[in-house]
From TrEMBL:
Ranges of residues in domain Alanyl-transfer RNA synthetases family profile: 1-464
Cofactors required: Zn(2+)
Subcellular location(s) per record: Cytoplasm
Note describing how the cofactor binds: Binds 1 zinc ion per subunit.
Task performed by this protein: Catalyzes the attachment of alanine to tRNA(Ala) in a two-step reaction: alanine is first activated by ATP to form Ala-AMP and then transferred to the acceptor end of tRNA(Ala). Also edits incorrectly charged Ser-tRNA(Ala) and Gly-tRNA(Ala) via its editing domain.
A Gene Ontology molecular function term of the record: zinc ion binding
Covered range of the whole protein: 1 to 464 of 875
Name the record gives this protein: Alanine--tRNA ligase
EC number(s) from the headed UniProt entry: 6.1.1.7
Family to which this protein belongs: Belongs to the class-II aminoacyl-tRNA synthetase family.
UniProt keywords, alphabetically: Aminoacyl-tRNA synthetase, ATP-binding, Coiled coil, Cytoplasm, Ligase, Metal-binding, Nucleotide-binding, Protein biosynthesis, RNA-binding, tRNA-binding, Zinc
GO CC annotation terms, alphabetical: cytosol
Catalytic activity: tRNA(Ala) + L-alanine + ATP = L-alanyl-tRNA(Ala) + AMP + diphosphate
Amino acid sequence: MKTDELRESYLSFFEEKGCVRRPSDVLVPRDDPTVLFTPAGMNQFKDQFLGVGKLEFTKATTCQMCLRTGDIQNVGVTAYHHTFFEMLGNFSFGDYFKREAIHWAWEYLTSKKYLGLDPNLLSVTVYLDDDEAYNIWHDEIKLPANRISRENEHENFWPAGAPSDGPDGVCGPCSEIFYHPNGGKDNVEIWNLVFTQFNRVGDPPNNLKPLPKKNIDTGMGLERTASVLQGVRSNFEIDTLKQLCLAAGDVVGTGYGFDKPTGRPLRRISDHVRAITFSIHEGVNPGRDKESYVVRQLLRRALLEGYLLGKQEPFLYQLVPAVVDIMQTPYPEIAKTVEHVQHTIKEEEEQFLGVIEKGLTRFEGFLKKAEQEGKSEIAGEDAFDLHQTDGFLIELTEALAAKNNISVNRTEFNNLMQQHKEGSGSGAFLDSVMSEGPLTALHKTTSDTQFKGYETTVDEGTVV
Ligand code: ATP
Ligand code: MG
Ligand code: MG
Ligand code: MG
């Protein structure tokens, strides 16, 4: 099944169950101070979950564009993480609950009429004390006990954290569905069913109030499920993203092969260029502040991957048409801004390449200094200076050092970076966002517990 067909099949299945099909919300919400980018399908329904305002419908289904900066370190490394991805979801606002959510998910995944996955290759998790969910899986779906595990609040309570600890707001246990590919390869989480049945207010221990109307919030990874259905080893091998990786290989001039040494950098380039194309399409240009800063970092990282592969001129902008090719069926509007997006990307590429040239001169100075002092590494302080002054990502400094048979004092660099992130400036906050995701960054830099973002910190995931 092609990725475009899967999206349509999911949405029509849930329409048949009475859910109203809603379009994806924007990628960069302008009226939501709690998130920089849309992290999950539920984001556009926060008010409905809280029971704020009049409900036009009580059941919905969407395919939502999402962006999770917290997953950036996993991109191209694990088989299944992107920054930009699409999340399929079905939602209930005080309408259906656990029983239907579980039965419908199972029907959709295993029925021959829909995805027809082998039930023996699926397993699930439930929250420690969620006997209701356990019993539905075990007694009604007839899933054997050895394929249902009970996991703690880090995996199976949302927002993650002990049930009675903050943040306040709607919360509840969840149940995740995993696929186990034949041949002993690592399993992959494809779908998370969240049962938002509590409102968390005030201090523990009695701060979990059952909601009068219970909700359902589910999220299924489009690219992950497509990779399962297409029998490929990574999301980057599915029909759409493979095409983008091949285009990246052509533009950079190395060609693309999954196992080639250039595979991983080209997967990162493909991921990041998709994320920045959609952001700039929505009017968020690379810059110094908030979302713009993230876009700038994604662009620079992608440019740098190409630079290190020997492509030392603007090239990312040439990939925009390839992004449009694979994404315009669900999002035809992106075809309308191609020229503007290309122009914006190219300008930023030119500007950053100029900075790289200037930084290179300073790098050579630091190299000479290390040699004169008889050191076998570039000082962490100097690498940090290059990062702060010239925007040299540490990967670039390390790659340049390696070319000169010298290393970089990464421990010292990391310490300085850590101190910087713990500082109070907005630059510190944003660097933290890029490396750890907004939730952790916010916890570190403010005492604000109102954050209701959905994003967790970087997971280890499967290394391929
Ligand atoms: P993981 O543990 O693999 O990082 P998660 O538990 O953080 O996933 P959820 O927050 O439960 O993910 O999101 C719902 C679904 O969205 C996941 O089951 C998965 O299919 C998909 N998903 C989550 N993060 C990503 C990502 N970075 N790239 C692609 N798909 C993702
Ligand atoms: Mg998970
Ligand atoms: Mg999950
Ligand atoms: Mg995750």
